[in-house]
Design goal:
This protein is of the alpha/beta class and 382 residues long. It folds into 2 domains: 186 residues, Rossmann fold (3-Layer(aba) Sandwich); 179 residues, Rossmann fold, CATH 3.40.50.2000. The protein has 14 helices and 13 strands. It has a 6-stranded parallel sheet. Helix 1 packs parallel to helix 5 and helix 2 packs parallel to helix 12. The two termini are 35 Å apart.
Length: 382
């Protein structure tokens, strides 16, 4: 845990000491269990990677998964996840098959059935890619469970401490999820050379997306700006009126390409009928959305899946974050062309709630003109 070098009150120092101590104790226990129960695997031929979550979680894990494939190119690599087999944001839909052999989705599977299946596969190494907010007892439970699957394994660590959250917000420097997982790999001897995102795109996907851009006569990448107005959580959505101000500013000079899922159509349908707006919400799969984002010179997005897809394909992103979570955790990779906006000094910040009871004051505090200025700066770099 990295602490900012700035003056702190006595109370803040005490609270930080408790946070750091708790995290260290948790990781000492987890580390002791790993040393006691697991041994080192030098040349495993069968590897199981455990990673749960949805679109953003899976994108952030891709460089780490690729590092495992690079380290063990001849090994059979299976990925254990729980997103649901029919979900379009599962790793088998997002990640190139070159990085793994099989996806095992255990959603709806009993523990006993899963245990028998994994035992039968004879894994020689388990790589645990924990969720950033995984509770300590869950980490211990999983550490013990996977010991019966393989004699070798690593990855169990406590990252997020849930108490004194506003003190942490002020003084702790949080790694983004990609860097956190990459650091975990490097501490265990796997080199991550770069943020490598190898998506599962096909020629059919490229044909569909290219056809849409040709049909709308918007093939010139530097004239396209992607706009993502939706997000799963309402409190992560920048007000639609603010997005309208952005579109009003840019639509005469740029094509505004709206990206999102079918659930975002209600928001995009509420937009005024500006010229040069192409609404692709609900028309594309996630990997097709990534290809569409690749056709754009810039993306402006809420904290949601397409934001991660944008930087994964190399498109600069202006990311709008609410203050409901710790700062930094889900930010895009640091780059002069990636800009993040998150309001400070919000009284209810780091609430971690699913429903906002304070009229979305954190996202409303991010002024459209400030965002527009940042977009213009990035567009000048293109």
């Amino acid at each position: 845990m990295q602490i900012r070098k700035q003056r702190k009150t006595a109370g803040s120092r005490f609270r930080l000491m408790l946070v750091i101590s708790y995290q260290r104790i948790c990781n000492f226990v987890l580390g002791a269990f790993q040393k006691l129960l697991y041994r080192r695997a030098n040349s495993p031929s069968r590897i199981l990677i455990f990673r749960t979550g949805s679109l953003g979680d899976n994108i952030c894990a891709m460089p780490a998964i690729n590092a495992i494939r690079k380290k063990f190119p001849q090994a059979r690599i299976d990925i254990l996840t729980n997103a649901g087999k029919t979900n379009l944001v599962t790793l088998d839909k997002l990640l190139s098959p070159a990085c793994y052999d099989t996806i095992i989705d255990y959603l709806g599977t009993s523990i006993s059935s899963l245990f028998k299946k994994l035992r039968k596969n004879g894994y020689e190494l388990v790589v645990y890619l924990p969720q950033v907010d995984a509770p300590f007892l869950r980490l211990v439970r999983d550490l013990l469970f996977f010991r019966f699957i393989s004699r070798s394994g690593f990855g169990w660590e406590k990252t997020t401490v849930m108490f004194f959250r506003q003190t942490q917000e002020k003084y702790v420097i949080f790694q983004n999820e990609i860097s956190r997982l990459n650091s975990l790999m490097e501490r265990n001897g796997l080199q991550v050379l770069a943020d490598t995102f190898i998506l599962n795109t096909s020629q059919a996907d490229e044909t569909i997306v290219n056809g849409i851009f040709e049909k709308n006569r918007i093939q010139e990448k530097r004239k396209n700006i992607a706009v993502v107005v939706g997000a799963k959580r309402p409190q992560n959505r920048w007000p639609i009126g603010y997005f309208i101000q952005v579109i009003e500013h840019f639509h005469t000079q740029y094509n505004m390409v709206l990206i999102g899922g079918p659930e975002d159509r209600e928001l995009t349908n509420s937009l005024p009928h500006f010229e040069n707006i192409i609404d692709l919400t609900g028309e594309l799969t996630p990997v097709q959305s990534a290809l569409a984002l690749q056709h754009c010179t810039l993306a402006i997005s809420n904290d949601t899946g397409p934001m991660h897809l944008a930087y994964a394909v190399g498109t600069p992103v202006i990311a709008i974050f609410s203050s409901r979570d710790f700062p930094g955790k889900w930010y895009p990779p640091a780059s002069p062309k990636n800009k993040v906006f998150r309001a400070e000094n919000i009284p209810c910040s780091v609430c971690l709630t699913e429903i906002c009871n304070n009229e979305y004051i954190c996202v409303k505090a991010i002024e459209p003109q400030t965002v527009i200025s940042a977009m213009e700066d990035v567009l000048q770099m293109a």
